[in-house]
Design a protein that fits this description.
alpha/beta; 5 helices; about 10% strand; 5 strands; Pyruvate Kinase, Chain: A, domain 1; elongated
Length: about 300
C-alpha cells in the first residue's frame, strides 16, 4: 500500500484536476449555449436559400448558360476536400470521429484528394499521415461571422473554377443535440439542385436532381441572378458547416469535461477512503507499539 504522504499528494493532485475540468466544463457550457443559438438561428435561412437555388437552377434558359459552379466535368482528375475540425482537444471523440470519417473518404476515393483544412487537429493529423494539404485555416473566432469564413469559401471556389479541383466535398460534424454529433461528408461543388424536401444541409449526399416545381418570373433573368447568388450560397454552406462544427465541438467538450470531473470526484472518494484506512492502520500500529512498550516496562519493573 502507498504511504500516507503519497496518498495525500495524489488527493491534492486529483483535487486540482477536478477544479480545472470543472472550470473547463463551465466555459464549454457557456460557449455551447451561444453556439447552439447561433446554429439554430441560421438553419432556416440556409434552408430557404437552398429552396430558392432549387427554383432558380431549374428554370428554363439556365442550362444554356450554366454558371461555372453548376458545371459537372466529364473527367475527374482531382478531388478537393474541405475538412473542418477543432483547434484544441479535450473534447472527447469529436476530432477523432471527424478525422476517421475524412480518412475513410480519402482511402475510398478512386481519385487523388487534396485537402483544405479548417482547424489545427485535422491539419496535424493529415500532415502526419502524409496527405496533401493545399491550404489551412485555424484560430477562427469563438463566434465567427461570414467574413471570417469568406477566405475558406474563396479558396474552394477559386480552386474549382481554375480546374485545381474537379469536384469539392465538405467534411464537417452536424450538430444534432448536446449528446449526439454526426460527422458527414457531402458534395459542395459543383452545386446540385435538390428536391425541396431534401434541402437540409445534412442531406446533400442523398440529393437528387429534379425539375422545377413551378415557373416564376425573375428580374433580371435567372442566369444573371445565379451568377450573383451561387458564390454567396457556397459561402453560406461553408459558414453553416463551421457553425455546426463549433456547436458540436463545444457540446462534446462540455460532456467530456463533465465526465472527467465526475471521474475525478469518484477517484477522490476512493483515495480519501484509502487514506483514512492507511491513517487508521498507522494509528493502530502506534497504539500497539505503545501498549507493547508499556507492557514490557511493567514486566521489567516487576522482575
Amino acid at each position: 500500500m502507498a504511504s500516507i504522504r503519497e496518498i495525500r499528494r495524489r488527493i491534492r493532485s486529483v483535487k486540482n484536476i477536478a477544479q480545472v475540468t470543472r472550470a473547463m466544463q463551465m466555459v464549454a457550457a457557456s460557449r455551447m449555449r451561444r453556439a447552439q443559438e447561433q446554429v439554430l438561428a441560421t438553419r432556416p435561412y440556409a434552408a430557404k436559400a437552398g429552396e430558392i437555388l432549387t427554383h432558380l437552377a431549374a428554370q428554363r434558359g439556365v442550362d444554356e448558360s450554366l454558371h461555372p459552379l453548376l458545371q459537372h466535368r466529364g473527367e475527374i482528375r482531382t478531388v478537393g476536400l474541405v475538412l473542418i475540425t477543432g483547434d484544441k482537444g479535450l473534447c472527447g471523440s469529436y476530432n477523432h470521429n471527424m478525422i476517421q470519417k475524412a480518412l475513410h473518404f480519402v482511402s475510398a476515393s478512386p481519385y487523388p484528394v487534396e485537402l483544405i483544412t479548417v482547424g489545427r487537429r485535422g491539419r496535424d493529423a493529415m500532415w502526419r499521415l502524409g496527405k496533401k494539404i493545399v491550404a489551412e485555416f485555424s484560430n477562427l473566432p469563438p463566434q465567427p461571422g461570414v467574413l471570417d469564413v469568406a477566405p475558406i469559401a474563396r479558396t474552394a471556389v477559386q480552386g474549382f473554377i481554375a480546374g485545381q479541383f474537379d469536384v469539392v466535398y465538405l467534411a464537417h460534424t452536424t450538430f444534432v443535440n448536446t449528446l449526439v454529433q454526426r460527422p458527414e461528408v457531402w458534395q459542395l461543388l459543383p452545386l446540385q439542385p435538390v428536391r425541396l424536401e431534401k434541402i437540409s444541409l445534412d442531406k446533400h449526399q442523398e440529393a437528387e436532381p429534379t425539375l422545377a416545381v413551378g415557373e416564376y418570373i425573375y428580374e433580371p433573368d435567372p442566369a444573371t441572378i445565379l451568377n450573383s447568388v451561387l458564390p454567396r450560397f457556397t459561402e453560406l454552406q461553408i459558414y453553416q458547416s463551421v457553425l455546426e462544427s463549433l456547436a458540436s465541438e463545444h457540446s462534446a467538450r462540455m460532456v467530456a469535461m463533465r465526465n472527467a470531473t465526475e471521474n475525478a470526484n469518484d477517484l477522490l472518494g476512493d483515495l480519501t477512503l484509502t487514506y483514512n484506512r492507511a491513517r487508521q492502520e498507522a494509528i493502530t500500529k502506534e497504539m500497539l507499539d505503545i501498549a507493547g512498550g508499556a507492557e514490557a516496562l511493567a514486566q521489567a519493573r516487576a522482575s
